Amino acid sequence: LQGTKSAIMGALSKVAPVLLRPALRQLPFVRFSHAHLFRKRPGQLIVNRIKDLSHFYMIGIGFLPWLAVCTYAHIVYGQCELTDIPKEGPPPHYWQYERTPIRQWWAKWMGVSDMEHHERNLSYYEKQGIVSRWRQVEDRVKHLEGERLDYKGWSYQPVSSTWVDYGRWQAVRMRDQYEQHGHYTQ
């Protein structure tokens, strides 16, 4: 019984591809023609590479670790509590007034204090005020120049007879000189 079973299985394994193969009539005729074998389409290597790299750097390196750090800080430390300013000892730093440990770290290492921010704004607005006053003065000067016709326009330089004689001498020299690089005596 064992021998016949293996013989039947062997015969079926040889016959199975023939029995299970679809008939040639059922195959689409596209395979026998030349249409749509290799369709032209734009290359996607660069686009896929950009998508992969941006996904890796933004999500894998940027967003997920930051999300993990934020979650850990909020679970372990929670919100900071505001207490009275201590009477003895050094006064607290500006970054110790922030709500969460992450905000405190950011204010300490990346941000600026409120005093520095205020000084920067004062400096910026002072500079803008000076520039604004300069523009007002320039506009006033231009207005008065136009009103009084008091501006530098066409000017006349007096001509001396020496320059007229020198110009005439150069014209004669250029007329009589055959080559420009030559120095001929007259």
TrEMBL record:
Transmembrane segments: 56-77
Pfam families in alphabetical order: NDUF_B5
Membrane topology field: Single-pass membrane protein
Main location: mitochondrion
GO cellular component: mitochondrial inner membrane
Family: Belongs to the complex I NDUFB5 subunit family.
Subunit relationships: Complex I is composed of 45 different subunits.
Reported function: Accessory subunit of the mitochondrial membrane respiratory chain NADH dehydrogenase (Complex I), that is believed not to be involved in catalysis. Complex I functions in the transfer of electrons from NADH to the respiratory chain. The immediate electron acceptor for the enzyme is believed to be ubiquinone.
Protein name in the entry: NADH dehydrogenase [ubiquinone] 1 beta subcomplex subunit 5, mitochondrial
